[in-house]
Amino acid sequence: MKKIMIHDMPKHLGETVKLGAWLANKRSSGKIAFLQLRDGTGFVQGVVVKAEVPEELFAIAKSMTQETSMYIIGEVTKDERSSFGYELQVKEIEVIHEAVDFPITPKEHGTEFLMDNRHLWLRSRKQHAIMKIRNEVIRATYEFFNDNGFAKVDPPILTGSAPEGTSELFQTKYFDEDAYLSQSGQLYMEAAAMALGKVFSFGPTFRAEKSKTRRHLIEFWMIEPEMAFVEFEENLEVQEQFVSYVVQSVLKNCKLELERLERDVTKLEHIQAPFPRISYDDAIIFLNENGFDDIKWGDDFGSPHETAIAEHYEKPVFITHYPIGIKPFYMQPHPDREDVVLCADLIAPEGYGEIIGGSERVHDYDLLKQRLDEHGLDQKAYAWYLELRKQGSVPHSGFGLGLERTVAWISGAEHVREAIPFPRLLNRLYP
Amino acid sequence: MKKIMIHDMPKHLGETVKLGAWLANKRSSGKIAFLQLRDGTGFVQGVVVKAEVPEELFAIAKSMTQETSMYIIGEVTKDERSSFGYELQVKEIEVIHEAVDFPITPKEHGTEFLMDNRHLWLRSRKQHAIMKIRNEVIRATYEFFNDNGFAKVDPPILTGSAPEGTSELFQTKYFDEDAYLSQSGQLYMEAAAMALGKVFSFGPTFRAEKSKTRRHLIEFWMIEPEMAFVEFEENLEVQEQFVSYVVQSVLKNCKLELERLERDVTKLEHIQAPFPRISYDDAIIFLNENGFDDIKWGDDFGSPHETAIAEHYEKPVFITHYPIGIKPFYMQPHPDREDVVLCADLIAPEGYGEIIGGSERVHDYDLLKQRLDEHGLDQKAYAWYLELRKQGSVPHSGFGLGLERTVAWISGAEHVREAIPFPRLLNRLYP
Ligand SMILES: [Mg+2]
Ligand SMILES: [Mg+2]
To answer: Where is the Aminoacyl-transfer RNA synthetases class-II family profile domain (chains A, B) (predicted)?
Structure first.
């Protein structure tokens, strides 16, 4: 008998099939046992009726411990009461390995305990659902960029110079040289966009930042598209289309997972392009008029400011045209105002904060040189990057989206640490 | 007029369109100029006929330097002589930026020079083609694993322990602790497979190895699938289906690129599952009978051995059941022979070497503990990994495919450094 996986059961209605599975939970009476089975692709109930199976099998089913692994044979039937819609009428069980004292029981556990047991915690219903949503966000990201003519380009992780200072960078010996772990592949992606037109990266990023908030990870994944011949406004359009595509893909393909997480999907259904835009100028006025007297023009936003602005909208909101003084050197100045740049941050709803930072890039050689000087940056470290502006420079734009914040938002997870399989935090390098 | 990209030109036959493009090359006479244009999505010829355009435009076309960027307007017409099949009858050119002394001219350049200029070298026809093939390998990989029910799981890059010794590991300070850059996410993927059934990773990997061969990179990308309830033989079937899928996808979707690289596609067309298998035992006999007296049972293969074996087959070949002494601790011993393990390496044709290493994993707690001891490894560092064998352990298998070797093979590139956008080599951390 060929073994199948739980997510394929609907195709085998009425058939007798074999599954490899673990026992997630069970309940039983003297006459019947209900086994909550999981195999990684889904959860399904196995029904063992005492009167219909050998005595020994019913005894095994009744006494089986949480997370025991097995091959299980049964008939696929409909089950209208469950969200999955199917169940398994069990005929045979072959226990592979009996689990003993699985540490994560259905009761409440402390965060540090769960994090120490992350390798096992991933098996629980909620964590499993978040990981499936993460997978769908990744899948939809590739689909979106492939369908829109982008090539995936992988910028290097190890770089030889630490242009913006080393305080938040991880450093390592690279044979006889020093190397640093990348905080962003953007500069490399700009070079790649001049070769391949529209490109995107999707890889790990490292910030040795001593932040301990629910939005920060030391190691996280970032998607960084970069587009030649694309200016500020078109850049925003790509971003809102991309984010809409990802959210709608999750709604379509992760129904069971969103339900398991008790996610209010009405808050996701209307996430469709276009997204609202507010200028930085207006955002400051809005904040000052709404009780925030701790911020003035020229200051960067903190989490409470971003949240207050985001709460005013039902969709993610672009905050555009930040002051030049609080943004990196590579952002293109506004053509009519030298005090702001052609950038936007995209703030997620429901307090999840900034999920995208993007901008048009400086494409003029002299201006870029001047901006490097103004930031006190070493031109030698940027020699190859500057040279791009000598060899057929073109207007170009790009952005970076943080995967874990996006997954946390869509899943409704409280903390980004639940949005990555093995989180790296300030005091967390295990497992 | 909406701008389009070169790869979309076939949809606009007979229309007047606008492109953003760079001048890759040109030739001209007194009456006509042929501009070889590129925009990252493709290459196309722009035709400027002196008698049909303003005098000024013809002068611009004739004098334009290599890599000058422009917006260019023209009519899309058929061109049966080119592989692309279309060309542009130029009507207007707006130069964006005039390139001066682009360093990479159509003449020959030395390797170090090209590598120093990798940020510009990527624009050349051959490098562009390899990057497009790399992109297609990536795209097809996601498609294959998504279609086959695998979830993408990202194992951590920074890990707190260096279980197999630190000699080939990059080390960094992680606040008050020491951390190491991952050489493989496999152990984490095993934990993930117990939670999600079938999983794959696809991320950067680091080996601080002082190798300087055409097959080695310091930083490279690896695909590591791991499958619960999957044993040795089924693991090989997934591998041969995956590799076949990727090769056939490139043949289908990168015709122009393979042609530009002058790749002999007849060597790729028959790359279809199943692949041949030869046992390690038989491989040693084969080598000894074919003039290799430098290898005996128990030794690992070097590149010349792998190449000699591979040359005997037209497809990639699995070498199976290596001696237990030359393979890692986590490989499952053969049920009937204690001297070999249930593993296989997949050797690519045409001298490209090993592209996959894989095995069934030890799933018995006591045996794994014993194997750790035999390898002199610290059980504390493996505590969470060992614990997987206490909590519903199941037979499971997985493998790792190296992206760059696979891309080099399919592209016919001479060296893996051309199969990654910004290679990291022994003496190469720039650009
Ligand atoms: Mg911000
Ligand atoms: Mg080998």
So the answer is: 131-431
The Cβ of residue B59 has, within 10 Å, a number of other Cβ atoms equal to: 13
- DSSP secondary structure string, A267-289? HHHT--SPPPEEEHHHHHHHHHH
- Please give the pLDDT value at position B212: 85
Instruction: Write out the two tokens for B123.
Output: 């624009």
Pairing outcome for strands A158-159 and A177-181: antiparallel
Torsion B40-B44-B45-B46 (CA) sign: negative
Domain spanning A3-97: which CATH class is it, in words?
Answer: mainly beta
How many other CB atoms are found less than 10 A from the CB of residue A16? 14
Give the mean pLDDT of A284-289.
98
The CA distance from A332 to the nearest CA of chain B, in Å, is: 16
pLDDT at residue A246 above 90? yes
Q: Residue B90, SS3?
A: strand
Kindly state whether B25 is in contact with chain A, defined as any CB-CB distance less than 8 angstroms.
Answer: no
Fold of the CATH domain B119-419: BirA Bifunctional Protein; domain 2 (3.30.930)
Sheet harboring B177-181: ordered strands across?
Answer: B158-159, B177-181, B171-174
User: For residue A184, how many C-alpha atoms fall within 13 Å in the half-sphere facing its CB?
Assistant: 19
Average pLDDT over residues A397-408: 98
Report the alpha-carbon distance of residue B240 to residue B276 in Å, rounded. Answer: 10
Spatial distance between the Cα atoms of A419 and A131, rounded to a whole number of angstroms: 7
Task: State residue A161's pLDDT score.
Answer: 78
Domain residue spans in chain A? 3-97, 119-419
Mean of pLDDT over chain A:
96
Comparison of pLDDT for B167 and B404, the residue scoring more = B404
Query: Which pLDDT score, from 0 to 100, does residue A163 have?
Result: 61
A100 CB near a chain B CB, below 8 Å? yes
Q: Are B411 and B133 in contact (CB under 8 A)?
A: yes
CB distance from B394 to chain A under 8 Å?
yes
Please give the pLDDT value at position A212.
85
| Complex confidence, ipTM | 0.97
pLDDT at A210 over 70: yes
By DSSP bridging, strand B43-49 and strand B69-78 are unpaired
CA A403, CA A309: separation in Å to the nearest integer? Answer: 22
Ligand nearest the Cα atom of residue B299: 2
Q: How many CB atoms lie within 10 A of CB A25?
A: 16
